[in-house]
Amino acid sequence: MQLVKTGPKRYEDYRELMDIETGLQLEYYAKRLSGKRIAMVNATSYGGGVAEILHSLVPLVRDLGLEIDWWVLEGSNEFFTVTKIIHNCLQGQGETLTPEARALYLRYNEQNAAAIKDWDYDFVVIHDPQPAALIRHRNDGGRAKWIWRCHIDTSTPDPECWDFIYQYIKDYDACIFTMSDFVKENESLPGLTIFTPSIDPLSPKNRALEKEKVEEIVSRFGVDVGRPLITQISRFDPWKDPLGVIDVYRIVKKDFPSVQLALVGSMATDDPEGWDYLYRTLRKAGEDYDIKVVTNVNGVSGLEVNAFQSASSVVIQKSIREGFGLTVSEALWKRVPVVGGNIGGIRHQIDDGINGYLVETVEECADRVLTLLRNATLAAEMGEAGREKVRQNFLITTNILNYLRLFDSLHGQEEAIKQR
């Protein structure tokens, strides 16, 4: 395992964006947990929402006065191919997890656990299925509280795959899901807790940019800033349906020929399948020069994503399955209305007809995009509503508060047991 280094962040910089009550509670729980040590563990330090959250959450928790480390799994391409199969199976896609694949998964979990000689932590948060089996190799003497944070929809998983992962999940002290709907029906999970992920409003991806800067950045990628742009920001993944987004664009273009489409994504180390889907997307785009397909490989970082979202008339998140979809909140924070798949965590962020639209089909998505392109006043009103929705519900400070409350609750249970 590798220890991730993060840049500094100042909690004080976030005060004006929070409600007073949120700030008071954050400081209260930080004092109660003073001296406790926290570990966050996930599969990659870049590419994807979990890594993005941790790049902000970890330094902010430190600035609140708590000790926190962030560890990332080390694994081969073969290992991450297996964990992608597990990810897909848990979201309901029928794939076979062979005995060989299971053995490979367990071997890498054991090797990564051995890399940390001393689990000297009070709270260990394991993100998603890739490192779930680490708990079987803990060497903390039972001192730490272990928490499994699931960012995906496991409501209808492949039964065999779920049984394989559940044998490790049941050993945790608590499990966090984004929505209660994502929890397998009638499943007994320890310390079940529900809260959403979040965005960092002051990160390069979300801070306010001058109009001139936005235009200069997107122009580098061939966007004509004098014409309307629709954008989807996501991994190249079948669940995100980039091919369907191209179908939406082609319908819209028939009635709105000046429109452009940008598909912007990150290629993550824990997603080998992403390259195949990127190539499929490029083949479908063909020689339409109004479709811009760009990734972190050709110069896209958080700043460029910010510029694409800020330059867009409409942002699409046409997911077929979605844990949460942070890109929805990112766009809403920039006052851009979003047309999203009526699925998963997207439904928590978009109030249909208020700050965007929820859709089921390509045709419905195209119709809603056209509505917003034709009515700038409506789009602006939805954008304002979207920003306030995010400010109240989906900022990084609220996410930290939810973690600290859970840690305090688990610590309180431990103290109660000791006093018996």
From TrEMBL:
InterPro entries: Glyco_trans_1, Trehalose_Metab_GTase, TreT_GT1. One of its GO terms (biological process) is glucose metabolic process. Pfam families: Glycos_transf_1 (PF00534), TreT_GT1 (PF21269). Transmembrane segments: none annotated. Coiled coil: none annotated. Keywords: Carbohydrate metabolism, Glucose metabolism, Glycosyltransferase, Transferase. Residues 40-184 form the Trehalose synthase N-terminal domain. One of its GO terms (molecular function) is glycosyltransferase activity. Residues 216-388 form the Glycosyl transferase family domain. PANTHER family: SYNTHASE (CCG-9), PUTATIVE (AFU_ORTHOLOGUE AFUA_3G12100)-RELATED. Belongs to the glycosyltransferase group 1 family. Glycosyltransferase 4 subfamily. Homodimer. This is Trehalose glycosyltransferring synthase TreT. It comes from Thermacetogenium phaeum (strain ATCC BAA-254 / DSM 26808 / PB). The lineage of its organism: Bacteria, Bacillati, Bacillota, Clostridia, Thermoanaerobacterales. The gene is treT.
